[in-house]
Amino acid sequence: MHIDSASREQLQEWEKELSAQYQRICEHELSLDITRGKPSADQLHLADKLDGILNGDYRAADGTDTRNYGGLDGLACARDLGADILQVPSEEVIAGGNSSLTLMYHAVLTGYLFGFAGNTPWRELENPKFLCPVPGYDRHFSICEQLGIGMVNVPMTDSGPDMDAAEELVRNDRDIIGIWCVPKFSNPTGVTYSEDTVDRLAQLGQIANPGFRIFWDNAYAIHDLEQQVNLPSIRSATLANDTADSVIQFASTSKVTFAGSGVAFVSSSPANLASLKQQMQAMTIGPDKVNQLRHSRFFAEFTMLKEHMQKHAEILKPKFACVLEQLEKSFGESDLGEWEKPRGGYFVSFNTRPGCATEVIKLAADAGVKLTPAGATFPYGKDPEDRNIRIAPSFPPLEEVDTAMSVFVLCVKLASVRKQLQ
Ligand code: PLP
Q: Which keywords fit this entry according to its UniProt record (predicted)?
């Protein structure tokens, strides 16, 4: 189907056929949901042995009684686990509670209220702003929006954020004090940053406001579907550029063990960790060390973690294959949309023709298929071209992903044809 070269008569004919198909689908009264990147029950089962693994032995290898208060940095063995995931030294890791998003929120608060490493608190700037590679992760944007931190869109390319644009913005605006990055299997585009991008990001600290921080949310660090994809080390790149204070890294086991009961990690330079801990110490006496110990026992060796991730991949692969097959079959030879083929992570990002995403999502909802709201992948929920749709196939069973995708492709066709007819 090529819309740009179709005659009006052809478009009208397609519209009639597609509308009839759409009516038939609506009669099925479906109730399917491919909105959020949650692990499926099968994936969660993989970690069920966490329950009971301590078997009454609550002491960590270093003698810590994990049931008691204390240890703001987290257990040593949990910090080792975070260090393995992020490929950084354990001394530079804090093992926290169950959510890396919470750690990100606290890190933004630290920068905003107190400033990192002796730098001016962001709230004292006239108009503090973050660069937001788009499309991106809605919850990053919510943090900024809630704190009144401005957001500036930077387009994503297939090797990471458009670095020419990012450098230009940082050079000309001292109020830019951060950038959100999901560097591996980015949410939602699935892109992994290239070596050149990582290097150029590491150099931003040389030209930016000294309080500038890169929020390196490595949520999908070990979530490869096939062979391992290598993400260049931002830590090495910043050390080489004398900008080690400019980056704060995050990860968690949310999509490794239990999404609601994992362990989250933050890693950064000693100066930034000291700033973070200064804020944290007023907030908590320490994280849930019992859960940290459970995780350390469950993944006694890093190889065990890697084997565990392969089992996740086996469950996820058919679902991603299904999404990609449906897209390829329907749009491979068309001008109706574009998408990336992710090699890991949790999403497939689809771009409709300009001005169609909202209508596709509405049509799908009316046919009983819930998609992430239009604009969700952009700051303030505003997709300037109304094109991006995030598809999250991990949670529903394969048959449901397949049915939902059949509805999705039909809605894309129908919305595109109707738009062209306007
Ligand atoms: N960061 C990204 C990019 C995510 O996609 C998600 C969850 O979807 C999170 C963070 C949430 O992580 P956590 O469960 O550790 O808070």
A: Aminotransferase, Transferase
Q: Is residue 316 part of a domain?
A: yes
Q: How far is Cα of residue 289 from the mean position of the Cα atoms in its chain?
A: 26
336 CA distance to ligand 1 centroid (A)?
Answer: 30
Any atom of ligand 1 within 6 Å of the Cβ of 104:
no
* Domain closes at, from 266, 299, 332: 299
79 touches 73 (CB < 8 A): yes
Q: Is 372 in the pocket of ligand 1 (CB under 6 A)?
A: no
| Tokens standing for residue 114 | 């107190």
Residue 93 is encoded by which pair of tokens? 């890791």
- The ligand 1 atom nearest the CA atom of 251: 15
Q: Choose among 326, 263, 286, 368: nearest CA to 28.
A: 368
Please name the residue that has the structure tokens 């930034």.
272
Q: Which helix (H) or strand (E) holds 247?
A: strand 247-252
Average pLDDT, the chain: 97
264 touches ligand 1 (CB under 6 Å): yes
Asked whether the predicted pLDDT for residue 36 surpasses 90, the reply is: no
Note the pLDDT tens digit of each residue in 39-73.
999 999 999 999 999 999 999 999 999 999 999 99
